[in-house]
Design goal:
This protein has two domains: 118 residues, NADH Oxidase (3-Layer(aba) Sandwich), CATH 3.40.109.10; 169 residues, NADH Oxidase, CATH 3.40.109.10. It has ten helices and nine strands. A five-stranded mixed β-sheet has the order 3-4-2-1-9. Strands 5-6-8-7 form a four-stranded antiparallel β-sheet, with helices on both faces. The protein is an alpha+beta fold. The longest helix is centred in the N-terminal third of the chain and has 20 residues. 36% of the residues lie in helices and 18% in strands. Strand 3 and strand 4 form a beta hairpin. It is globular and about 55 Å long. Helix 2 packs across helix 7 and helix 5 runs antiparallel to helix 9. The protein binds flavin mononucleotide.
């Protein structure tokens, strides 16, 4: 397998909205091209495809990280052809270089990272950790806002409003059901075993299974030490959303490498009014892409894995 094929394979571990994995890769001798797969867009939850593009950005950063960790330089062009908006990025392989230790740490976290929807414990995420994560996010061209203690109530209200509004919509419920009850060979979607039963939470977590089939309990912890961060950017242009996804990937992989559990929260940006409230938490200086809950788990029980599409489905090699 070539180094580009290995990088594309590593990217398949990337988290994505509803685990839709809305991308495919096209590999030639020295380029790796990332395409958005609009047939995997969530028409009700994400009609404009913002979260689709963010998800593709996560996959792009996973591939870049795998290349840097393997000791290869690469140049990346984002949205390289204006006539082909589905072509989100073209990575051109450069030369062999010394492996980047930071990329190696993050690459090692790629297969270990999971979305953990259980409540996190009392141990607090430190300011120093948040500052480290903020630097990584900014390096990728996005911004990070750590939600202040006095803002958590407004975040909780936003999540509550968003969750309620979505569940009131029969089209959303149908979409949710479609992506949580997949036929098993398909390799995508959110299995109920990875969803958490609704309970009173510091900030509500998306109820993936209103049919009561969730496999996880929130547990005895109360999210007291959890940090809530907002990844945001200047605007909602596709290139900005792509970079937002790359920043999200850097955040999740570095946090995982540091022993933190992570859980993205996007219902708050999917519904207009909660999204507006979130912009208020950012003092209206940017567009929120996503919230992430970070913290330490208290349970020793391993988390069930989410499935992934077979590589042959998502990677096309042109020989
Ligand atoms: C853009 C984006 C939005 C997401 N939104 C949510 C969310 O609102 N709630 C949630 O529990 N998980 C959310 N996730 C996590 C995905 O559901 C998860 O990545 C996917 O199911 C695969 O599972 P894994 O992360 O454990 O590999 C989101 C992930 C991404 C990249």
């Amino acid at each position: 397998m070539t180094v580009l094929e290995q990088a594309a394979q590593a990217s398949l571990y990337a988290p994505s909205v509803f685990n839709t994995q809305p991308w495919h890769w096209r590999i030639t001798s020295d380029t790796l091209e990332l395409y958005a797969d609009q047939s995997r867009r969530l028409d009700t939850t994400d009609p404009q495809g913002r979260l689709l593009t963010v998800s593709c950005g996560v996959a792009l950063h996973h591939a870049r990280t795998a290349l840097a960790a393997a000791g290869w330089s690469a140049t990346v062009e984002r949205l390289p052809e204006s006539s082909q908006p589905e072509l989100l990025a073209r990575i051109r392989l450069g030369e062999e270089v010394p492996p980047d230790p930071q990329a190696q740490r993050m690459a090692a976290a790629i297969p270990l990272r999971r979305t953990d929807r259980r409540a996190f414990g009392d141990r607090e995420v430190t300011e120093a950790e948040l500052a480290r994560l903020r630097r990584l996010v900014e390096f990728e061209g996005a911004y990070l806002h750590a939600v202040r203690p006095d803002q958590v109530t407004m975040l909780a209200i936003s999540a509550e409003l968003a969750g309620g509004a979505e569940l009131d919509d029969p089209a959303y419920r149908a979409e949710l059901r479609r992506w949580t009850h997949r036929p098993s060979p398909v390799g995508d979607g959110v299995p109920p075993a990875t969803a958490v039963r609704p309970e009173l939470r510091r900030v509500p977590v998306r109820d993936f299974t209103p049919d009561g089939t969730a496999g996880l309990a929130a547990g005895a912890a109360r999210d007291q030490g959890a940090a809530y961060v907002i990844v945001f950017g200047d605007d909602d242009r596709p290139v900005s959303l792509l970079r937002g996804g790359e920043a999200l990937s850097a955040l999740l992989l570095a946090a995982t490498a540091d022993g933190l559990a992570t859980a993205p929260i996007s219902d708050v940006v999917e519904v207009e009014w909660p999204r507006h409230l979130l912009r208020g938490l950012l003092a209206d200086i940017g567009q929120p892409y996503l919230v992430v809950r970070l913290g330490y788990v208290t349970s020793r029980d391993p988390l069930p894995e989410s499935p992934r599409r077979p590589a042959g489905d998502a990677i096309i090699v042109i020989r």
